[in-house]
Write a structure and sequence with these properties.
The chain has 11 helices and 17 strands. It has 369 residues and is an alpha/beta fold. The chain is globular, with a radius of gyration of 20 Å.
């Protein structure tokens, strides 16, 4: 990697980790990453550091730092819900990657999801504008596009959220953030939004997607009940590479779908099983059963019962949430590695960091190819 320096600045030549040719040089000294101790945030910080960027990581006082362990991040304590904590954090920052959000939304009330994802984002954008930050990249979500319309099996950036907000508060919160971006761009702040689908890969210490690895490994011949729908998965490292490219050449006010492989839930389990060298008995749950389950969860919540399940998540699991990523491919050079490579690397990270022991997994019997 070639680098030229001058006092107080550094000119960085970004080479994407997936092997793309070098992008043109750009001037960037200090970058703030909110959510730097999370799954995407820690991987993004690692990629930026590899390119020689000085990363400042915003973290709450009680944020676990395991995912970011070993990374040369300059941590500062703050909270996106407390706007008074942000001006000092923004001092001397060139670009902001706003990754912080509630991702495991099914564990939180809708009001909390809205407060963190929407109001927290507004606080970050206002602080960035007041501090004279050059550009902000927001990590949105593909779920902000809703579900496929009749006759259009693939969602793209032209789609808009089309569900009732109470059915899927998380997706609705990300839709509102996209609307907010337009407002700030109109007032002069350069903001780009990237919309990842379901990310998989190393540093997923909360097992958001890595849970499927755990489920497949749980017993010598596990029986897995799998929804009848489908989803899209992207390797987190491909995802963060595209974040960096979006910061460099994304167009202000634009959204970019960062998506990878469209697969049914059954295909996902089959790929995970093959990648890890185990067998799994798959039982596909029909759509009517999922709709019934979602209805029961909704009724229980209305009665005040606190169930460890989310109505919207169950309801959407029988849909085929597939995406067209051509815009990101054309404008950001997005490339996706094979899915089974992502699975094996996820597994290896868990092994190296002893996380599978928490699930009682007998890891010695697994030999990924």
């Amino acid at each position: 990697m070639s680098r030229q320096t001058k006092p107080g600045r550094c000119i960085i030549c970004l080479r994407m980790l997936n092997g793309n040719d070098c992008i043109q040089n750009f001037d960037m000294t200090r970058v703030l990453v909110t959510g730097s101790t999370g799954f995407i945030g820690s991987n993004l910080s690692a990629a930026l550091i590899e390119h020689g960027v000085d990363v400042v990581g915003l973290r709450r006082s009680n944020s676990p730092g395991d995912a970011a362990q070993g990374l040369d991040i300059s941590f500062v304590t703050g909270n996106i819900l407390f706007p008074e904590s942000l001006p000092l954090v923004m001092k001397g920052i060139d670009w902001v990657f706003h990754v912080a959000a509630i991702a495991n939304y099914w564990q939180f009330p809708a009001e909390t999801v809205h407060r963190v994802n929407v109001e927290g984002t507004r606080n970050v954008l206002q602080a960035a504008r007041q501090a004279g930050v050059k550009r902000v990249v927001i990590t949105g979500s593909s779920t902000s596009l809703g579900i496929p319309r009749e006759g259009r099996p693939l969602l793209d950036e032209g789609d808009r959220f089309n569900l009732k907000p109470h059915l899927f508060p998380y997706g609705y919160s990300k839709y509102l953030v996209d609307q907010m971006m337009t407002e700030f761009v109109r007032h002069g702040l350069e903001v780009v939004s990237v919309l990842p689908s379901t990310a998989i890969g190393p540093r997923d210490l909360k097992f958001n997607t890595g849970e499927i690895v755990v489920q497949v490994l749980k017993s010598p011949s596990p029986r897995l009940f799998v929804p009848c729908g489908g989803l899209n998965l992207i390797d987190v490292r491909d995802c963060v590479d595209a974040h960096i490219t979006a910061a460099k050449r994304g167009k202000p006010g634009e959204r970019y779908l960062l998506t990878g492989h469209n697969m049914t839930h059954v295909e996902v389990v089959q790929h995970v099983s093959r990648a890890l060298g185990v067998s799994a008995e798959i039982v596909e749950v029909p759509g009517w059963a999922l709709v019934l389950k979602a209805g029961l969860i909704w009724s229980a919540h209305r009665l005040g019962l606190n169930l460890p399940a989310d109505c919207g998540r169950v309801l959407l699991s029988h849909k085929h949430l597939y995406y067209n990523n051509q815009k990101a491919v054309n404008e950001l050079g997005l490339k996706n590695r094979p899915f089974e490579e992502s699975v094996r690397d996820t597994y290896e990270w868990y092994i190296q960091n002893n996380y599978l022991q928490k699930w009682g997994i007998r890891t010695a019997r697994v030999s990924p190819a």
